[in-house]
Specification:
The complex is a heterodimer of chains A (109) and B (113).
Chain A (H helix, E strand, L loop, with lengths): L3 E4 L2 E4 L5 E7 L5 E7 L5 E9 L2 E4 L7 E3 L5 E6 L8 E8 L3 E3 L3 E5 L1
Parallel strand pairs in A: 2-11
Antiparallel strand pairs in A: 1-3, 3-8, 4-5, 4-9, 5-6, 7-8, 9-10, 9-11
Chain B lengths: L2 E3 L4 E5 L4 E3 L2 E3 L5 E7 L6 E6 L5 E4 L2 E4 L9 E3 L8 E8 L8 E2 L3 E6 L1
Parallel strand pairs in B: 2-12
Antiparallel strand pairs in B: 1-4, 3-9, 5-6, 5-10, 7-8, 8-9, 10-11, 10-12
Amino acid sequence: EAAVTQSPRSKVAVTGGKVTLSCHQTNNHDYMYWYRQDTGHGLRLIHYSYVADSTEKGDIPDGYKASRPSQENFSLILELASLSQTAVYFCASSGTEQFFGPGTRLTVL
Amino acid sequence: GDSVTQTEGLVTLTKGLPVMLNCTYQTTYSPFLFWYVQHLNEAPKLLLKSSTDNKRTEHQGFYATLHKSSSSFHLQKSSVQLSDSALYFCALSHNTNTGKLTFGDGTVLTVKP
């Protein structure tokens, strides 16, 4: 089965600090995505990428940057973490369907 | 832009009863519709998908029919089990191979003994 892994699985960060969330896929998929999930809401797209060294803005990109250094790896970067960015973050890759990673629970204090 | 609406935030049922979770969508493109299921502390997993009008698609006892005339893709099951308790998302895409997904807010299904 297709595999998407994320690290770390959980993280506590301080307001104003820098946070990097990493995602790795072994599916040989071109497309990768970063979503956030808040309690009571669905998944919202932050950034996505369809080729290495290129990223695109999703629906809620403000406060986030993304990096796709290779086909397998896709990172989400919070340069100045804020309280409002406390959420669960999911990475996904897609071929004919999207496969999600296990998620990263980020708490910003 | 695209949007997906799931009207029920929470559905609670007794084991063995039927369930229907509502999903309607808005898009100007030819739609691909999906249902994802997310069990507690797990990643969302694909349950069903369809792009064919008026054709029923089934998986693991769940089924749904895409009706383009009413922009709907409701999820149904004839007899729910305790293991069906989970968060269910309806999602919309333009392109099943590469497209972005727009998700509804999700419906929490709780099945009681």
